[in-house]
Design brief:
Helices cover 77% and strands 0% of the residues. It has 78 residues and is mainly alpha-helical.
């Protein structure tokens, strides 16, 4: 996902290109358009991704532990 900093960087580059043209007034619209496109693409920030990856790792560890417990119980109580 493009971070807000990356989005601003892209927006600033576009602004530099169009600042002396009639498109100069379009900077806010371009920024809003880019933000809208990224939102529609359902992209997430790296921070959000990392948080969810950690939740998944934790959940996986708990599942593995429960599977092990279930296996041990099945051995003792056929």
């Amino acid at each position: 996902m493009f971070s807000p900093d990356k989005l601003n960087e892209i927006s600033n580059k576009i602004k530099e290109v169009v600042k002396d043209s009639p498109l100069g007034d379009a900077e806010k619209n371009i920024h809003a358009l880019l933000k809208s496109i990224f939102t529609k693409m359902e992209l997430v920030t790296r921070e959000e991704f990392d948080v969810q990856a950690e939740v998944l790792r934790t959940t996986r560890k708990k599942l593995d532990a429960l599977e092990k417990q279930l296996s041990e119980l099945a051995k003792h109580h056929p």
